[in-house]
Amino acid sequence: MTTQLSSATDSANLYDRDYYLWLSHTAQLISEGKLAEVDTANLIEEIEDMGRSEKRAIESYLVVVLLHLLKYKYQPEKRSNSWKSSIREHRRRLRKAFSASPSLKGYCEEVFSECYQDGREQAADETELPLNTFSPESPFTLDETLNPNYLPEN
């Protein structure tokens, strides 16, 4: 069911009033080839937001893997299956994201050092070890970080 709108301006107003209906209406217009009636300004914004969201997810998954690898390396006496499970789960999420969008692996390489710093700070907070306990440079390569079989063994 799609509501008939009289102009692109009405479609733009719909974006603010009923987001889901705006999505449905926009998809219908595109599928019918009525591109002149599409609310292009909001559509462009939504597409750009989708790309940013994918990048934020990569960063988040990577930070979690690095955080738990650091905890695993620096607190061997506290190693737990929950850390291993978290590492496995977030590596899986990264693999799936790279499978759906291979170009995101290049983005992962770009932000690896920044994500390591975030993981390092979070590891210090969670372990209550001083920040300088953790190397300022990642002790793990990106390949090790993503490798489903890699765990640091002191």
Helix content: over 70%
First and last CA, distance: 60 Å
C-alpha geometry:
elongated
Low-confidence stretches: none
- Number of structurally distinct domains: 2
Question: What brief labels describe this structure?
Answer:
single chain; 154 residues; mainly alpha; 2 domains
Tell me what you see in this structure.
This protein is mainly α and 154 residues long. The chain folds into 2 domains: 8-38; 51-146, no CATH class. It is 70% helix and 0% strand. It contains 6 helices and no strands. Helix 1 runs antiparallel to helix 2, helix 3 (40-74) packs antiparallel against helix 4 and helix 3 (40-74) crosses helix 5. It starts with 7 loop residues before the first helix and ends in an 8-residue tail after the last helix.
Can you describe this structure in just a few lines?
The protein has 154 residues and is mostly helical. It has two domains: 8-38; 51-146, no CATH class. The protein contains six helices and no strands.
Topology (SSEs and partners):
Elements: H1 8-17, H2 19-31, H3 40-74, H4 81-100, H5 103-127, H6 142-146
Helix pairs in contact: 1-2, 3-4, 3-5
